[in-house]
Amino acid sequence: MTASADLGMLATRWLLALDDELPAARALRRELHADPHVSGEEGATRDRLVAALSDVIPFVPMTDAGAVGRIGPAGGPSIALRAELDALPVSEQTGASFASQNGAMHACGHDVHQAALVALMRSARRIDLPFGLVGLLQPREETSPPGAQEMIEVGVIEQHSIAHVIGAHVHPGVATGAVASAGGFINAAADEIDIRVEGRGGHGAYPHLAGDTVAAIAHIALGIPEVVRRTISPVRPALISVGTLNAGLGVANVLPAHAHIRATMRTTDVGDRTALFAAVRTMAERTAEAYGATATVALIEGQPALINDHDLAVGINAWLTRLGIPGDEPMRSLGADDFAYFCEAVPSAMLFVGVETAREQPQPTLHHARFLPDESAVDVTARALLAGYLAAAEGLRAAG
User: Fold this and answer.
1) Across all residues in the chain, what is the average pLDDT?
2) How far apart are alpha carbons 254 and 214 in whole angstroms?
3) Helix %, strand %, coil % of the chain (to 5)
4) pLDDT, tens digit, 9 for 90 and up, residues 172-189
5) Rounded Cα distance, 206 and 212, in Å
6) What is the DSSP letter of 92?
7) What digits encode the pLDDT tens for the residues 63-115?
8) pLDDT tier at 400 (50, 70, 90 boundaries)?
9) Is 185 within 8 Å of 270 (Cβ atoms)?
10) Rg from Cα positions in the chain
11) End-to-end Cα spacing for the chain
């Protein structure tokens, strides 16, 4: 019997076991959705998930609000599945019977990911796994410091010999019930640029005696898109969006001595990340100088670009087909996810599960107060994670 056929039999048994776990997982999703906790306060969510798996696998606390647990062979390489724990500070407007009432909301689908992971790990206890299966209950995906980076820094990869990490994220931009899997760039690196312009303040009637920080900051803001166009190849996505621009004290005839820009920079190539910031800094400094002011430009580093492993993605697509799950076009965006740190550490893959919110048109986006995937999303997400495990296991077997 070939290794692929052997894994095929395992998949059949695992799917049957998973079907038995899904009704309870859907109920767990509703419970988790009703009691969300924002970044840094996810301990209660972690504890509920650990309790749901307490008869299957012991979990060890990790970082401030995370945990890790392993099932299957104790030695050798393992394959990890990630579920994010945090909710968003959004007041829910779905009207669901299990809607959150505490001012936080699982508006990014993390409740679905959590319930799917529980279902798959509970069903795994009935399967003779070829490689260890590690559950990563990760805090702080939505804020900094990123939970994924911290779990790596405290040694989760080495402690469990993790060879691959698989993530699955619901998304209304993917066909409902389908799963999008692709290698290469998936999400952008997300950094912030802080620009502070200082000049000699003065009277609006005597601008020749002052350094004009308002004119300088305005021209810097308008010049940023041109810097992107002239620095980055148009075939590689990149952007800078100004989110904050402050100058003045609300007085018409006072020229302010200070002005400030805060912008988000999204890039999909490591070299572009460095080159684009350098070009913005040069432009800002010289523009400010032209208006009799000075500019200080700082980069606040965020998540790196999320790059899926090509071979793993090919294998996942093959297993999605074998499991009867329809595929969709690759889901790539300039959004960001700290799963990127796992991709930097070991060959890994993030999948996107197509979902819809019933009776809503147009469909609410991620982070929207009315975003509420149908409970069937738990089923598809669990099967997507299963496809990821099977593809990783096939690759590990082939590598010997």
Assistant:
1) 96
2) 11
3) 40, 25, 35
4) 999 999 999 999 999 999
5) 11
6) -
7) 999 999 999 998 899 999 999 999 999 999 999 999 999 999 999 999 999 99
8) confident
9) no
10) 24
11) 16
Find the mean pLDDT for residues 142-146: 93
Alpha carbons within 13 A on the beta-carbon side of 80 = 29
Residue 5 pLDDT > 80, yes or no? no
- Looking at residue 1, its pLDDT comes to 44
CA pair distance 317, 387, nearest whole angstrom: 8
Per the DSSP assignment, residues forming a β-bridge with 297 are 195
Burial of 359 (0-12, 13-18, 19+ CB in 10 A): exposed
Q: Which two tokens stand for residue 299?
A: 């980069």
- Assess contact for 125 and 71: CB atoms under 8 A: yes
Which of 289-316 are b and which e, b meaning 16 or more Cβ less than 10 Å from the residue's Cβ? eebbbbbebebeebbbbbbbbeebbebb
Q: How many residues does the chain have?
A: 400
Q: Are 265 and 276 in contact (CB under 8 A)?
A: yes
Distances (CA, A) of 305 to 147, 193, 367: 16, 17, 21
CA–CA distance, 194 with 361 (Å, rounded to integer): 37
pTM (predicted TM-score): 0.93
Q: Are strands 189-199 and 184-187 parallel, antiparallel or unpaired?
A: unpaired
